[in-house]
Amino acid sequence: MSITKRSHVLIAIAAVCLSFAAGAARAEDGVLRVGIITDMSGQYSDGNGPGSVIAAQMAAEEIGGTVVGRKIEIISADHQNKPDVATGIVRNWIDNKGVDVIAEGVNSAVALAIQTVTRERKKLFLISGSGSSDLTGKQCSPTSVQWTYDTYASSNATAKAVVARGGTPWFFLTADYAFGQALERDASKAVTSAGGKVLGAVRHPFDTADFSSFLLQAQSSGAKILALANAGSDFRNAVSQADEFNIRASMQLVALQVTLTDVPALGLAHAHDLLFTDSFYWDRTPETRAFAQEFFKRHGAMPTAYQAGVNSALRHYFKAVAATNSVDSETVIAQMRKTPVNDFFAQNGVVREDGRMVHDMYLMRIKKPEESKSKWDLYEYLATVPGDQAFRPLDEGGCPYVAKAH
């Protein structure tokens, strides 16, 4: 080997050693670091974004700001809805910043990419804003928990309720990325299993402004139900433009995913009477109201399910760290699995070995303008769907870690 090549090898080895030394030093600096990675500036920022960081800060404060002698530090970053940006941030956090746990991860394509990194690095990933059921299916991780919802649960109860009321056949308007594709897939299965029919689907790009051609395709399909398998501004644009085309004269709109902050932005005049399933509503119980009022003081808006899920997931994580006196991912997640989740978000929730936190879901209807008493009085609660009925059975997801265990 030449002197030049030998020098380059030695420099590379030294850099790796320094990186490991830096990581070890940070691991022993008496700080527990939580990284909130989310959409801070794009179409999901209202329902996630800064509000998710506030929810994380509240969880840290609720446990006293420290756990097992470590001060809790919350850091955050904007992944810009780009998987490559997200993975670069997470790798840097783990390798160079001493981050112990990653949380949030809205946008399913982004979350799947992050989960690959955290699985390789054996770090905990507490997923709140991302819905693809693949996160606990074939692409699951032994160190991830999908906390708030998934596409299976969101579509399952809604589809069954609509078909039971005679709502069939269906046509899907689907966001063409991991989340929308999974939502359409899971909802289609629920429709057919309930005795309904699916006539087809049209897929639109992420962040679409003009839905006219897609809505005309849906209208000409002959379906009675137009299922919206999208979210954020895509969902809002689709609903408002559907009204411009008078779609509701021949089709019922069904929302497969609704974020609380979408509704004031869209307006009840457009959003009214949409049926959907959610994991959390701020005005459902005294406990949800207490959390929501404290959150509102800090953020000026009521919490979405995703923001509430960030808080709940971190509460459970901090309790597991305290119980085990450890921040080792495998030790902590084992404790999280054996401890029921009981808080404002879930009662008797269970963290399964495929990474799914199983809890009750709620069938909701968006109120008419005349029914709403205030800006955030938006939903009518219709029914509770027990967790074991809402979420996909453990043996049907195809998680390889579950397959190895049984």
How many structural domains are formed by the residues?
2
Query: What does the oligomeric state look like here?
Result: single chain
- Give me the secondary-structure category: alpha/beta
Number of helical stretches of at least 4 residues: 15
Mean pLDDT: 93
Topology as H/E string?
Answer: HEHEEHEHEEHEHEHEHEHHEHHHEEEEHH
Please tell me how large the radius of gyration is: 22 Å
Find the count of extended strands (DSSP E, 2+ residues): 15
CATH architecture of the largest domain: 3-Layer(aba) Sandwich
**Strand count, sense and closure of the main sheet?**
6 strands, mixed
Unreliable residue stretches: 1-25
User: Which CATH top level class of the largest domain fits?
Assistant: Alpha Beta
Distance between the termini: 51 Å
CATH homologous superfamily annotation of the largest domain: Response regulator
